[in-house]
Specification:
Mean pLDDT: 83
Largest sheet: 5 strands, mixed
Helix content: under 10%
Shape: elongated
Number of strands: 14
Structural class: mainly beta
Length: about 180
């Protein structure tokens, strides 16, 4: 059904794809499609895509089918247990990625992060973590106390404990050498 609109096309039946911009809820249309041709692949760096399907009262066709893939990592973790890992683990993680996990638990509880496997790009100067790093804060944001920053390779498990009910975990990689990443 889909083909990119031109002058005067996609007036009656169409699929509009928009990205949500910021926290205000406003959107920006990235494409409007109708007809029978496949549209180009659409990529977005936003975490929300808005689809609007418009059909009028006259001619009907089969409609559309949409497939998507999420390339990313991070999120909000609220379950009492779970597993997180770098993208692609145990294969190499991608270059130039930032993953952020917000861990929120019930008031009065603590959080324990058990990093069972860890292998990142080596940093010169010991533990300076100039290249790739896993950083953990004991609170909701980066102003909270930093509990640890890990880089290079660890041969044994590492346990990080937050005394409060929130933890922020950030994994970042630079634009060059990768490792197999981590799992926790």
């Amino acid at each position: 059904m889909l083909q990119h609109y031109g002058t005067g096309n996609c007036t009656y039946d169409y699929l509009s794809i928009s990205e949500r911009q910021g926290d205000g809820g406003e959107t920006k249309e990235v494409g409007r499609y109708c007809g029978h041709s496949m549209p180009p692949r659409i990529t977005s760096s936003q975490d929300t895509i808005v689809l609007h399907f418009q059909s009028d009262f006259s001619v009907a066709h089969n409609g559309f089918r949409l497939e998507w893939t999420v390339h990313g990592c991070g999120g909000r973790l609220t379950k009492p247990t779970g597993v997180i890992s770098s993208p692609g683990y145990p294969s190499v993680y991608p270059n130039s990625i930032v993953c952020v996990w917000h861990v929120d638990q019930a008031l009065g509880t603590g959080i324990q992060l058990n990093i069972t496997d860890f292998y990142l790009e080596s940093s010169s100067g010991g533990e300076s973590c100039h290249y790739d790093a896993l950083t953990v804060w004991g609170g909701e944001d980066r102003t909270s106390p930093r509990l640890t920053q890990l880089c290079n390779r660890r041969v044994s498990s590492t346990v990080v404990t937050a005394l409060g009910n929130q933890m922020l975990i950030e994994f970042r990689s630079d634009s060059s050498v990768q490792g197999k990443g981590f799992t926790a």
